[in-house]
Amino acid sequence: MAIRHTSTRTPASRLSLLLPPGLLLILLLLVPRAGAQNLPDGFALETVRATTFANEPIGFEFLPDGRLIVIDRDGDVFVAFPYTVGSLKIFTVPDITNAEVHRGLLGMAVDPDWPARPYLYFLYTHVDTIMHIAMYTASGDLSDPGSTNITLSNRFIIVDDIRDDNDIHNGGTLRFGPDGMLYASIGEDSDPCLAQDLTSLNGKILRLDVAALPDTGTGPPPKALITPSDNPYPGPNENERLVYAWGLRNPWKFTIDAPTGDLFIGDVGAMTWEEINVIESAGYAGSNFGWPQYEGTDSLTEPWLQCGVGPLTPPAHQYMHNMTSSYSVMGGPRYRGASTAVTFPSHYEGDYFFMEAFGELATGGMRRLEFDGNGWVAADSVPGQPDALNWATGLGFVVDMQMGDDGAIYYASMFNTFFPRGIYRIVATTATGVHDAQASLTQRTRAVPNPARASAGTTIHFRTARAPAVTMDIFDVRGRLVRTLTATSPPGSIHWDGRTDDRRTAGPGVYFYRVQAGEEPGAHGKITLIR
């Protein structure tokens, strides 16, 4: 994770800076909770899952059928249903050490070919002061959106020699790219010059090919088996051949832009600067982001930091931290819309969102960058934005943020501090493509019954001012169009019989609807179908 702490033991550990994790958490718990989330006009925050079942939810992924997999820093793995109370702990990853806030079960990824390849991948700190990347095989109801029957077994260790001598700077993200490769972010373990040592896996983004891993055995495999042939560093060391990028301090969270394969990395700074580092996959030949000789574009002069190996790549964006409003960057997604009920207005397309995780004692400040043709710059404020720096505030202690297939931004809040821990999403409440975020929403809708049995369906009631015809689109949680229905108005209603456009009965799970009446701004909502 990205929390810093102070130590007087060595010059290198002094770079960790600031409050000990335990004291920080005490302070967070003592501060009165804020009740409001501040979003720009035309946006809303929805609770996807209030994780009362998880102690410290640190990551999440959706299965293709819409079920939610949530991991707890303590090592527990849950399957949950969005927008309902149903959930089940299905597994506890063994041999985890989690006594310090930077340690524990840190990252998780679902195989992109699920359920044909029924594998979950985990990144965690091991009791033997090393970090593991491991694969587990899932069995049970792998495609039933209404079932919690998933079992994990057959641990296969992929990598087991990542140093974890110190209790901070472990990184902690696993993501699959559109190329099918597994990417992992690893911190420099509070040993800065490891980031400049290509024989070490610390202070790096790793890129692994897991397609050829066997279904049997315990691992780890020869590193040649998991080394992509097109990684940027050819060796001679086997660790070097796994490296995708280096010179990073604590790349706590990163995301991969699905259309391009570009990486957006939040690298937590030490003294003055927080960094956003961008890797453009087209023509990529490797990047050294400069830590510890450079933090941001500042050259550090301390003798023990002079281990940089050029050429160095500057950050795409940097900002100062000041112990209050700016403290630890958490990399988020590049916005990519979808033709769904909750798509952001079109001028957000391609913008980059990230969190200042500890800003104002972890109230949750989300920030936004846009590409101006030359580089990534702070985006102009929009109506209702809480301040010039933050696009949104009051979102909680955000530890994971991802782009949803439905056009919403999803995030996990880990601690019950200013905001209850859980999984949330930010949606647009204006019609797709509406540039004016202050457009009024004249339609009001409700679905009755909700939840509804798929065999009986549900009726969506609406009221609109003037449009003679109303169209309703229904989408699944992956953003795929399920059904289009029409009705006359005003007033009126549309009955969905629980079937798809090809007349099949829709499976149990969560669905979203968008009601559109002429040129009026659309309204949206969600429906839960049960057996």
Features:
single chain, 531 residues, mainly beta, Neuraminidase, Immunoglobulin-like, 2 domains, 5-stranded mixed β-sheet, 35 strands, globular, disordered N terminus
Describe this structure in words.
This protein is mainly β and about 525 residues long. It has two domains: about 10-430, Neuraminidase (6 Propeller); about 445-530, Immunoglobulin-like (Sandwich). The protein is about 5% helix and about 40% strand. The protein has two helices and 35 strands. The chain has helices at about 10-15, 20-30; strands at about 45-50, 55-60, 70, 75-80, 85-90, 105-110, 120-125, 130-140, 150-165, 175, 180-185, 205-210, 245, 255, 265, 275-280, 285-290, 295, 300, 315-320, 330-335, 350-355, 365-370, 375-380, 400-405, 410-415, 420-430, 445-450, 450-455, 460-465, 470-475, 480-490, 490-495, 510-515, 525-530. The strands form nine sheets. A five-stranded mixed β-sheet has the order 10-11-12-13-17, with no helix packed on it. A five-stranded mixed β-sheet has the order 29-35-34-31-32, with no helix packed on it. Strand 22 and strand 23 form a beta hairpin. It is globular.
